[in-house]
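Students often ask why we bother encoding 3D structure as a string. The short answer is that it lets us treat folding as translation between two languages. Here is a chain of 733 residues written in the first language.
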Amino acid sequence: MSTFVVMAAEFNSPHISSDKPPRNCNSSSRLVKTALACWCCKDNHRLYQCLKFKDCNNDKRWEIVKTNRLCFCCLSQGHNVYNCPRRRACGVSLCQKSHNKLLHNEIAKNANTGNIVPAESAVATVSTCRSLVNDKKQSTNANKERANVNKTLLKFLPVKLHGPKGSMQIIAFIDDGAKVTLLEEEIANKIGLTGRRDLLHLKWFDDQTTSEVSMRANLEISSVNSNKRFDMKGVRTIKKLLLPPQTLCVEKFAHQFEELNDIPIENYSDAIPKILIGMPHTNLVRPLSVVNFNEGFTVHETKLGWTLFGSDENNFNNSTVCHVDINDQGMNEIQKQLDDYFALEGYDVALRRLKLVEQKMLRDSSYAEWYNAKINEYINKGYARKLSSTELPNERVWYLPHFAVYNVNKGNKPRLVFDAAAKINDVSLNSMLMKGPDDYQPRPLQSILFKFREGMIAVCGDIREMFHRINIIEEDQNFQRFLWRKGDTSRPPDVYIMKAMIFGSICSPCSAQFVKNLNALKFKHEDPRAVEAIINRHYVDDYVDSFPGVDESISVTKKVIEIHSKAGFELRGFISNSSELLRAIDCNTEYQGDSKNMCGSESAYEKVLGMHWKANCDVFFFNLVFARVPKSVLDGTRRPTKAELLGLTMSIFDPFGFLANVTLVPKILLQRLWKLNIGWHDAIPVDIYDKWYQWYTMLDNLSKLSIPRCYATAIFMPAILLEFPMIPASLET
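And here it is in the second language, the structure alphabet:
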């Protein structure tokens, strides 16, 4: 489902020194260099071109570099590695140190640091690569190795794949003619990819066709030298790609093409690609910069790094042709059968869940009345609609079960939720969606609460039905089908779709945040403070803000209401410690009756992002209600289990840490239970229970605790002393 669009950030190319020819030039047009004296043999060439230097062992090379005070990275004089304009990671065997490849010591690295290529990595070790560029004086074995070096290089590129179970470095093959991106199934399983499985029918270059069950997966990919990740959607898995191995030793080519010394290309040896990147993801591998060489080789810079490919062979005796296509002939009918199967399975699951809801409706008339009213409300407001018989046939559908959830913190108020996590053969709607980028996730709750305590005037409100005010694009609405028949079990259910965004979808919070902020940014020059309030002082649909004075609070709050209304959002349900602010807001008849005047009642209070706030006194306080803990535990009839003790402890919501000393006692007791290997559902020992129950009975003292909401007010208020049991000495060990 394409409920939101993520814009990719601009890719920045690595810096290359300006004393080299442009990357898109031919190597024949290199600039004329001034004569240079080699620091090793005194001949007229650079040190990294010196065959005598390459014949030296690693210790001797380091001695020459250090004696002549040369830069460890470019082997030149006049600067060090820290300010070297060509500084980059070594890259040999994935070495990340900033030294020249000729100074890399593979043996010392493995012995001292143990930093070896992981066993599960698909990239082979390249410690033998250096021997491929030695002088003819090397041994016969070295000459044999040089003879076996690829004269033809395919578009291989080391990359990192990222999934739910971690990251993995592999070799990618770029196929400009492939109409699909393929990933070996073994790699997909290792990084924890999941997705819908269906039949994949492949047509190879010589008209050979293969068919196998394949998974459609979404993952992230990055360069091996960068943390910047890119999305790859719709990647298909395959059991084996069966692509040929290839070796690349950059030093061999750098001896011929000097430009390569400035380009961070990764070495690899006998590497076999595990992913084939085709045209669906060509945006990741299209060339950003190009360097062409006379001898038939080319270097491309892509978002995923640099790749060297080409050939200097004229006679191809054992050529390899890599090309893959999706054969649509004979596939449509099979795919339709699979789609029908998944649709039928989804329909059956949704129908079974509907029957459970209807059974509860028969037992509870008030529940049935609420459920019917809620569905009718969705239809009347245009959030949902019934499909006609002609609209039912569709290849891209998903049926969502629905049910009611109750919020114990709001008087068991029900809410209708669509179960986007319901799975069919390990596939759910949420498993095919992405949570969304971090930039559009809701702001951290604590940062909003901290801002709420800054000003003397505080105000809170919430956006009515925020998720449902955002519509899903029409072609994706069939993924939000649901069944309903008003409790009439004597007939088949009707099929409806949710036109609006739903509660339960993994991407809904991010999408709502994106739409809210996108609308607000249109007014950033008109009222920056109101825009800042919408972007940084909202937690999903809750507006929580504070101001130094009443006038500013009125003007900003009214502007926030106005900006929200431009996107179809209705901000209402206001509470404040200022009656003047509430009256000013209620002057607008559009919001009349939605505000709650919290200033006139001594006992009135409201929860603000989980914190109890008594607006008339402008203080936070604690009202501990353990609704999910069995009554038999709370009244001392039986000892709690370890799970119940943990649940009670974690239900004390304290984002500011006001009760850190109070909650320390049960946390220490939980540590002791872990040491005793007490099971989750086993009653805690009597000695620990006695200490826990003593602590629990003292929680009543917290009703006397109140903390000023505003920091400035707290400075001038007298301290409140509460009696609370100290941590017993026996618990401190």
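Translate back mentally: The domain at 152-311+320-326 is CATH 2.40.70 (Cathepsin D, subunit A; domain 1). Keep this in mind for the problem set.
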